[in-house]
Structure formats: structure tokens, C-alpha cells
Amino acid sequence: MGIYIIRTLHIIFAGMWLINLISDSVLKGYIQKNRNKSGEKKLIHLYLTFSNLFGMIGAIGILITGITLVFLNPFYSFFQMNGNHWLTAKQTLMVVLLVILGVFIIPTAKKVRSSIGNDIENQTGLGDTGYENLNKLFKLNMVINIIVLINFLFAITHRFFGQ
Question: What is the pTM of this model?
Fold first, then answer.
């Protein structure tokens, strides 16, 4: 019974990441349409808050439930190349994803947040450095979303191609 609850939670957390994938492109489009206009900073603030919240909950949830599933299932192990290649690929991609998050995304998001400043109501524009960091964040989030999508595809297709 416990493994089914963990697996269900794992799927829910993966769904959160997939929602983040969709919302990322929608919010990014609104931000780009409203560059240097009133409300731009509110949209960027919403983008940072939403991607941070869903990304953090999704990442921690996937990590904890994924590790738990490996421990509970005797057929799975960590980074075992002689079986369950799909799982090894997912684990490797998860490590890459966590490195990108910790080394690149979090510091860049902090720089973007500081470019917004405290007064998101009255001011427009981020300055050249702010926009450079925002565009860098957009690209990094796209990389994360691609990794999440690849991991999702490994998860749903591995049964069709054998263990």
C-alpha cells in the first residue's frame, strides 16, 4: 500500500513540473510583450514566484519520492548501468538538473529579483543587466523544462521498450 502512495505522490510532483513547463512559456510571452510597460515587473515577479514555488516543490518532491521508490523496489538501484537503463538515465538527468538549479538558476533568479527592486508598482524596466539576467533565466528554465520532459518520457515509455 505504501509504495502506491509514494508512486502517486511521485506522479503528482511530476505533474507540477509539467504545469511549470506550460506556465513558463505563457508567462514568458506576457513578460516579453510587456517589456518596459506598466505591469512588467509584476509579471516578472509572478514568473519568479510561480517557477520558484512549483520548481522547488516539484524538485524536492520528485527527489524524495524517487529515492524512496528506489529503496522500496528490490528491482531498482542507483546508477546501475547493467539494468534499468531508463532509470539510470533519469537519475543522471536529475543530478544534472539539480546542478543547473543550484549553480545557475538560483543565483540568476536572485539577480533578476534584485533588478526588479522593491517597488514593482511604479517603475518599469530592469536595465540592460536585468534584461540579460532575465533572458539567461528564460534559457536556463527552458533547459530544465527539456530535462523534465525527457525524464517524463523515460518514465512513461520504459515499459514499451523493455526494462
Answer: 0.83
